[in-house]
């Protein structure tokens, strides 16, 4: 005789049906989709935040380093009159040694020397001629401006190397020369005629500089936009002098535009701002300030939608862009304090 209760229990233990499986799959897919969506949203937010942080840091650093050098451009100690500077180098009008132009710009990179290469098209180039403020003073008065070496205190480490370009200055005049020798124990800086390129055309500094005159290393530094060595697009580069290799400073700086403030009435205030190609060659010494606009982008593609905007940098339009990078314009004005003080 069959046990009907046992048969009923066996019937209740049937396997999972197709409907239940489909419902389970649908629910699983919904949960998985939600998890994936949360992951993608979080990743995009993280990518966007990383891009924003990188963009902000690149813009801040680029502005800071340009401002620092610009503020030192044309520094001659307590000397104000740039016309009283004697340049004893063989090639005083060469790009690297044209120290009568404390600042110089190149509109869209036009007119640059061959040493500044691979500039991104339609970007401006800035050259600043500055000193390294190392606080070195002479300890003896030149007995004869045409033959005496310059003597500074016994310094260690040596502040100058052979072939460095140096500036000696007091409140009455200044002279630029190439170091042909430096004796650290005595502090004697030789500036003999000749030497390697550029070399000195004369030993005569045209002035008897007294004890307490300041001596600086002087350099020509150029800032420009060039593609990053990391393959992430344009970046801000710097080249100092003619020997050292170019140095990449900040990724994501895609464009730089410049305007230069000319003092046209000798009151040490900018009366008008001009693009580099509208500054006459004999007026660079009258530049007392400049405006700089940088277009800065994150270096990651696809973190935002395509940007239909045209960014304006001091009147120059740039864009639109379809690479999904986050961009902003950084604009600042810097007074060349050694020309307006």
Write the layout of secondary structure elements.
Layout: H1 4-12, H2 18-72, E1 85-87, E2 103-106, E3 125-137, E4 150-151, E5 165-169, E6 174-178, E7 181-183, E8 188-190, E9 214-227, E10 234-240, E11 247-251, E12 253-262, E13 272-274, E14 287-297, E15 311-313, E16 316-318, E17 327-335, H3 337-340
Parallel strand pairs: 1-6
Antiparallel strand pairs: 2-3, 3-9, 4-8, 5-6, 5-9, 7-8, 9-10, 10-11, 12-13, 12-14, 14-17, 15-16
Binned strand content: 25-35%
Globally, the shape reads: elongated
Helix residue percentage: 10-25%
* Tally of individual helices: 3
- Kindly give the count of domains: 1
Mean pLDDT: 87
**Element string (H = helix, E = strand):** HHEEEEEEEEEEEEEEEEEH
SS-based structural class?
alpha+beta
Number of strands: 17
Can you offer a commentary on this structure?
The protein is α+β, with helices and mostly antiparallel strands. The chain has one domain. 20% of the residues lie in helices and 30% in strands. Strands 1, 2, 3, 5, 6, 9, 10 and 11 form an eight-stranded mixed beta sheet that branches. The protein is elongated and about 110 Å long. The N and C termini lie far apart (118 Å). The model has no long low-confidence stretch (mean pLDDT 87).
